[in-house]
């Protein structure tokens, strides 16, 4: 499981996580979607990786995320 928060450092609790930039997350979400990767639409939901995902699926996700982070203004 993982999730992405657009905040300066790792959020240690819910109150800190609420300070994250939700507009940047929305840009990231849509950038991922345009690249064919569907992630949960809220930064407060977890992504799940499972045995059903191939190495190619994971590589596609990593590649899409790198571009989406740049597009969202977070890299």
Could you give a quick summary of the protein structure above?
This protein has 75 residues and is mostly helical. The protein is built from three helices and no strands.
Fill in the keyword field for this structure:
mainly alpha, single chain, 75 residues
Distance between the termini: 22 Å
**What is the element string, with H for helices and E for strands?**
HHH
Approximate strand percentage: under 5%
For the sheet with most strands, the description reads:
none
Query: What is the β-strand count?
Result: 0
Mean pLDDT: 92
Number of helices: 3
Q: Low-confidence stretches at least 5 residues in length (pLDDT < 50)?
A: none
Helix/strand-derived category reads mainly alpha
Output the radius of gyration. Answer: 12 Å
Shape: globular
Share of helix, binned: 40-55%
